[in-house]
Amino acid sequence: MSPITPLPSVSMAESRHLARPPRCWIDTLPTPEGQRVTVSGWLHHLRELKSVAFLLVRDTSGVVQVVLDDPDTRGMVAALPHESVITVTGTLVAAKNAPGGCEVHDPVVTVISAALEEPVLDLYRPELDAQQSTLLDHAAVALRHPRRAAAYRLLAAALAGFRQVLTAQRFTEITTPKIIGAAPEGGANVFRLDYFGQSAYLAQSPQLYKQIMVGVYERVFETAPAFRAEPHATTRHLSQFYSLDMEMGFIEDHHTVMEMLTGVLRGMIGAMADSGGLELLEIPVPVVPSVIPEVHFRDALDLLGDAFESDLRDEPDLAPEHERWLGDWAMRQFGSDWLFVTGYPMRKRPFYTHPEPGDPRWSNSFDLLYKGLEVVTGGQRLHRLEDYEQALASRGIDAEPFAGYLEAFRSGMPPHGGFALGLERLVMQLCGIRNVRAIALFPRDLTRIAP
Amino acid sequence: MSPITPLPSVSMAESRHLARPPRCWIDTLPTPEGQRVTVSGWLHHLRELKSVAFLLVRDTSGVVQVVLDDPDTRGMVAALPHESVITVTGTLVAAKNAPGGCEVHDPVVTVISAALEEPVLDLYRPELDAQQSTLLDHAAVALRHPRRAAAYRLLAAALAGFRQVLTAQRFTEITTPKIIGAAPEGGANVFRLDYFGQSAYLAQSPQLYKQIMVGVYERVFETAPAFRAEPHATTRHLSQFYSLDMEMGFIEDHHTVMEMLTGVLRGMIGAMADSGGLELLEIPVPVVPSVIPEVHFRDALDLLGDAFESDLRDEPDLAPEHERWLGDWAMRQFGSDWLFVTGYPMRKRPFYTHPEPGDPRWSNSFDLLYKGLEVVTGGQRLHRLEDYEQALASRGIDAEPFAGYLEAFRSGMPPHGGFALGLERLVMQLCGIRNVRAIALFPRDLTRIAP
User: Fold this and answer.
1) What's the ipTM?
2) Chain A residues close to B178, C-beta within 8 Å
3) B12-113 in CATH: which number?
């Protein structure tokens, strides 16, 4: 028998009491040479022919086919609803047309936990045929579909890739408060909660904390839920999303952050490709150019003004159709799905934004578009206390609630910057999925708060 | 010059405009052979002697000594407050008594960002001499102290170790909602928030979601903030803590989970040791035995009854002094800092707890004590719908809010279990720190919500 790494703590019941071989993950089944194997998982499907039935067993790693010809076993399995949990021990035999190139013969099938009824969705079909609201209402079932399980696994892979790149670049992971005492910038779109009798808020972003921590570790990242009371129902927004944040010191300007981001994206997409999920879902691996093209906001408005035949020079931000047009333009001009738009007007960026040296109408900030949708926001921040005091005063923001944050700038802070990236939105766009609810686990929006 | 890995995006300003060598992390300075080097960081301290001054520069990786003998440079640096941000280029020379075995001579010192004033705390002293409340109020400064920065870095290392072990064991990372529509088990100690005009709650634990996801991926973990409205001020509780959760299917019973947990702890402590933080803080590396000793709750009560000379047989839980006594007992009896207490009474465990086969007064659950403090809780869960329906009914809990969760059990769930671990509390106890506020970044409690 070819070497199988023993899996600790898996199916000890079977191996001890039934003298079965220990359980094997389906994707590590040995080269079939007639040996006995045990697999455990869900009854994915049963296809009954006249003289034989084919049972598909699904575990976390894959699906294997089991050939049932004994009438008693066949009858017993046929009486089980889909999704029943079973263990199968049998002889592994090569079978060119079966999934994985092998199948299990002469099986002993044991029921671990029978499903009570047929599931509300046909999980064995190649695609789930149901409305999105049905899929979300029945998440406990819908998520089991192999294509959906693979899609959500891409989130985990992208997340691991993010952490891996930044850890290798000496970033330190931090975990910061999600309950905050003061609502930054006036409290728009912030959830309010009762904190032992006083008002508190859910953090929209770890921005202020990650800047404080640049004073400690120079380079920090956080991966955590963030909360926005989005009053609009869109295909791109959720009221809880998973935010990947980084911040780094000793930068030249926002371009240092953009370079680091380019490497991070390459690592995230590499991890998604390595996970096998993109292949399973037939999604081409997105290409990240070594240098992502860049257009200044001012020049973007000129291009858009010509294209839309209107005067956009005073626009403070890009509308979704403008982003889409720029995405197409970047593909025509540079052959790139990616485009940095830099220099957004200071009046549209938050108070901590660093202005463009020489022209303070513009900022040292950027958005990154992928196929015409903004997927990352970042930039250089102010690093001198007097600049903060001036920025807060000129925007009419009371500095007092920010005292604990501003203290970091009294004590020496290097030029620094960072970015924030919504994990679900990025993976959605990379995968060509049209609604963020189809990639967020248990999404939360204006009307949905369960399951 | 010995090979220095070029650091992308670090101090490009200096290298481009000043023809300095590129910036080097202090802990990767080359073997000193008289070459020119550049370091950047914070002015950690300046020690002035008669003919010379010693400047300590601190970056995220360490501290290096710079010898100042030029009067102008010396005067300029002496005028800077501690924590000013500077860049130093000079000649690297071996120096046995200097930190890292080398020092920088003939320096050119450039100020990147001067501190405005002396910091409120003397960060250059070996220990911070201040009340805890002062340290927390001035977190932006206090966290910069090398010992404190090292302590918080242990959290990051332990977290990375947790993820690494479980990923290698085929666990899939999940991210679940922190805003939930129904308060589990009556809503005690739950924060309530206003969710677009309706009541919602902050999740105390991802328990129900990770069980649903066992039906999808068999093995899952989550690392995320969790929220408890703890009405007591203790040294062990926070209202936001960082919860490490896992859940796995196809277990024999809670012992399968305990085995996996033992491996996880070994991985977490290994990562803490590898980070160098334990050594820097002079904390001995905690030993995890290959099998952690176990005592049944019933037997623990007998032992405690004898020790405390009182009848404890009807106690539903262990008091802190009981846990401490058991910690000492485990050391006397087994030479172990660790002790599993198993079989806690069903009436004290949550509704999803699996009873002990043969004696339903007890449960297939465990707490893990380290040096007499509970640091992990886990166990086997129910996996049959009828058991859930009975458990909820017998506790008088309305099943309706749990419909989306219970659906997972209609469709075949394997025997499963898992554990939850409070990151700050575990690292506190492993490091012999007496208050969880001294290891949580920006802690939240009854009275503290800033910074």
Assistant:
1) 0.95
2) 178, 225, 227, 240
3) 2.40.50.140
